[in-house]
Amino acid sequence: MSGIDIDGVAAQAAQAMLQSLAGTGRDVASYAAQEAKKLATSAAEIAQMRATGEIDDEEARLHLDIQARASRAVLMGIEGVALIGAEQAIDSALDVIGGAIKAAMGLTFLG
Amino acid sequence: MGKYRAFPLLAAVALTLSGCVTLVSNYDEKIDDMATGLQREISMEIETLSSQDKPDCLYPNHAAFYINARTDVSALAVRASAHELNSQTIRQIEDLRGALDDLEKLHQIATRADRCMRPEEFSDISRGFDQIAGAIIRLELAKKRGRP
């Protein structure tokens, strides 16, 4: 559309997102790739509208800001889901610890 | 007995953690409902705006939408802020408010130029708002933590 290599930009953006989200797992990787692709696609559409004079610089900036906010909202959601995953991991660990304590000492305070 | 030496420490750590491992607030049905309602409200406005001609498309004819939507976003923000450990949802709602401000400015710019917004502008705007509202709802549903 505007000469932007969507796949190339998407891959680089996904990599940047992945570096920020290190350790949050395969689901996050796939999610980030989808988001980078959407952001790159939208940016290309906005660049095309600017190039053809349908919108001016200020309008292009506002359009891009909407897309940046959308990507950030999705990434915030991923962060929240990852934290909930961490909660569940800790709970699983506590189950194991609780089982070991119960077996060894007869204490059942971990349920 | 040696193998039990670590248990008092382990028990103390487990006791400390037991029952307080909460990193994100609990599910709030109200936030789920409000975000869903806002998505519908904004989507309907974008759909309406994209199909209108002058003078119906001009900003003054839509000013009430921005007032209503901003009021609804504020109510959602207040509700989200009432929960502890809810920073991700609060930031998502801030982005929804910011995107709404951006849309209003785009609408005002077009009206100042005595024209409707371009049809080509609506696809990425619609996608952006759907992403934000969808992300808020998805996170809220995840807070159910597998509970119905």
Which terms summarize this structure?
heterodimer, A: 111 residues, mainly alpha, 3 helices, B: 148 residues, elongated
What can you tell me about this protein's structure?
The complex is a heterodimer of chains A (about 110) and B (about 150). Chain A is mostly helical and about 110 residues long. Chain A has 3 helices and no strands. In chain A, helix 2 runs antiparallel to helix 3. The longest helix of chain A is centred in the last third of the chain and has 49 residues. The mean pLDDT of chain A is about 75. Chain B starts with 6 loop residues before the first helix and ends in a 6-residue tail after the last helix. Chain B is built from 5 helices and no strands. By secondary structure, chain B is mainly α. In chain B, about 30% of the residues are buried. Helix content of chain B is about 70%, strand content about 0%. Chains A and B meet through helix 2 and helix 3 of A and helix 1, helix 4 and helix 5 of B.
Strand content of chain B: under 5%
By secondary-structure content and strand pairing, the structural class of chain B works out as: mainly alpha
Largest protein interface, residues of each chain:
A-B, 44 and 45 residues
Radius of gyration of chain A: 22 Å
The span between the termini of chain B is 45 Å
Work out the helicity level of chain B: 55-70%
Q: Could you tell me the number of beta strands of chain A?
A: 0
How many individual helices of chain A? 3
Secondary-structure element sequence of chain B?
Answer: HHHHH
N to C succession of SSEs of chain A: HHH
Oligomer: heterodimer
- Average pLDDT confidence of chain B is 90
Count up the helices of chain B.
Answer: 5
